[in-house]
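Attaching the record inline, Q. Sequence:
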Amino acid sequence: MADITVPVLGESVTEATVGTWMKAPGDAVAKDEVLVELETDKVSIEVSAAEDGVLSEIAAKEGDTVEIGALLGRIGSGSGAAPAPSAPAAAATPAAAPSGGGDSVKVVVPAMGESVTEGTLSQWLKKPGEAVEVDDPIAEIETDKVAIEVPSPVAGVLSETLIAEGTTVGIGTEIAMITAGASASAAPAAAAPTTAPAAPASSSAAVAPSVRRISAENDVNPADIPGTGRDGRATKGDALSYVAQGTKSASAAPAAVARDIGPREERVKMTRLRQTIAKRLKEAQNTAAMLTTFNDVDLTEVMAMRSKYKDLFLEKHGVKLGFMSFFTKAVVHALKEIPAVNAEIDGTDLIYKNYYDISMAVGTDKGLVTPVVRDADTMSLAQIEAEIGRLGKLARDGKLALSDLQGGTFTITNGGVYGSMMSTPILNPPQSGVLGMHRIEQRPVAIKGEVKIRPMMYLALSYDHRIVDGKEAVTFLVRVKENLEDPERLLLDL
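Structure, as predicted:
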């Protein structure tokens, strides 16, 4: 007898509504077969069978509100159990049996953050037959925003991998088996297949309620939706992608054919993070009325202050005094004066934010991410430098949590570290402003009728003209310039 319970639903989500049961009491079920769909205010979650058997009881009826861990139903043993489905592309060959084995423990996909229900198993960090310790990362799952490591729940030996690299997996999906307390076998382990191509949706596979609903709303046939789920079943994401492409039927337009590549070309699949970056940047261009205004800033005073106090600052606070803390303080000061740059559009409403969570663009091997410095207006220069350093290290190590990336009100991006002289930064939706920093150059400038050589930097403010007027944008950038050219203004709140 196995209980069917409500899984973790994501950050801040504590309850759900029971959607459609796809099986009735007495029906045979196979392991990993979808039994019921739960609807939250954010996402739809499918609950699958943990083992073969017969659905003996339904405890929560359609329309009931249930909390995490609540009993949905039970699976009992029985001769009427459905035969196990044919081996999917992602199935792995079991490893050589470990010696001294104990109980087999399932490894499942953990909760991946608010509104995130699936990811791509990008890499196995351990191979079947290898010993693992508690909390050892055994696999990496890449979502639209961050990469998440799946830890081992017990010490033992990774006996089997159930999912191939490149496969899309949802929360709660079983991806591996670990033999608890076992020692590694000397025999080489068979690795999982390296590819898991998407199969066309099977007409016999159960259609998820979310797929049926999306199909009905957009007048498409659910059977035409190419599926990437288990046994070729279409997921909610497949349905949304299908509709977004404007496809009304399988015969409406031929599938795009990848072009042949030459002998000196290489084809590499875009990561989910890179696909999301591309999608969001294009959405920003298509949605916002984006303009960019420019100015330059003389950093003589900031550089003199850094030079004078950098050793004492490091000795007292344990972090180096950089430029980003000055720019963050200057931006926050300007945002308080020009609140439209810190606001966002929600339908036909404007939302003004009386807090200052500054997103910092960080370049990584996998793409650009924007972790957030929370409540920057309440932080000292030392606290800002420490937080930027912490978030930067997490970004480069691929260990940012979704909570580190969500909720920024304004973005700062520093192309100067790569040598950029000038650029037009793109908005980070739903934010209405982004400040672009550039390289510092010694340039001749006229000061009180005399030509001086000063450390100058071009600044660029891209803004959404739907909410920020040109006068406000220019004033904002002038305030940033004034605060940096005379840092004492920040101390005196002028």
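The mean pLDDT is 80. Residues 355 and 375 are 6 Å apart (CA to CA).

More tomorrow.
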